[in-house]
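To the team - zinc ion complex, inputs and output below.
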Amino acid sequence: MKALREVDRGFPGTIDTLQELIRQPSVSAKNEGIEECALLVHRILKRSGITPEILRIKGAAPLVYGEVRSRANPGRTLLFYNHYDVQPAEPLDPWDHPPFGGTVRGNKIFGRGATDDKGELVTRIKAVEACLRAEGDVPCNVKFVIEGEEETGSEHIGAYLKKYRKKFACDGVIWEFGYVDSSDRPVISLGMKGLLYVELSVTGANQDAHSSLAVLIENPAWRLVCALNTMRGPAGTVLIKDWYREVKPLGKRDVRLVSKEPFDEAAFRREFGIDRFVGGIRGTAAKKALVSGATCNIAGFHSGYGGEGAKTVLPAKAVAKVDFRLVPGMDPKKQEARLRRHLLSHGFGDISVKVFHGEAAARTDLGTS
Ligand SMILES: [Zn+2]
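Output:
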């Protein structure tokens, strides 16, 4: 890993700018500091020689746009997509440093957005600035699209894309991530899995009851547990009918590349304190799962009493947040319909489904990359 000081020597002001950005809260889920952060990003772009502009759509967080035109190569345009919003900092207890402090300790910066995505954003801005300082030009036109609603599901990005289609036109996009692996090699991802995020809820009695009444009153938590149990097999396979219907297996070239990908299984297991992977897979199967595996994951489950000690309660309601990672071929709308059909056909018509987010996967064909 390059030392922070070294980075700062090559790209002056990188650390200061990142700290400045981290210190400005920008929690989209709570609309906390969003406007202020957009203005700050605008100032940072300007300082770095990038022409900034704040774009607006009614009811949406402002989108910060930036542009540098290349004199040497004006026919090509690269667009960086990033976001200035962050996830809420809660729970606050486990933080060793203030979430909006940008504390530097040794070779690390701590704070919300240090990674995902303020850190990545700053490195890109500083890279463009470094080109401008050294050459007075950039190798091709560069555009920045920096949105403020990514962490809440990019609700208005489609509307922004439609409205500013011409402005955002480009030959290629580099998505928000960008990191180096343990041997300092830059990692380039050629796609993203999609997501279907739902809340399943079921109501029992019209009020919480004493648990002795469980002989008569059905417990909604059990209903939900039973329903969830029909959705996923022990090896992680999604058991919903036709879930994988449109999915094509990875091509030969993809498999070859994936199997060559460096992935230290043992180190990964150590990092997460587990001794096996889902379904006991290893080697190439594990690498393929990372790249092309679909999931059904319980992101949260709430019902009854979860506090200290014991409370004999029969809850009136149970709620589960479930996220499905989707792979190319899966259409979120179709998958949602399949989920609803699954619940009905398994006798769980009383469970309501609320969809928060549905986004298809994207993958760049290796043949064109
Ligand atoms: Zn992100």
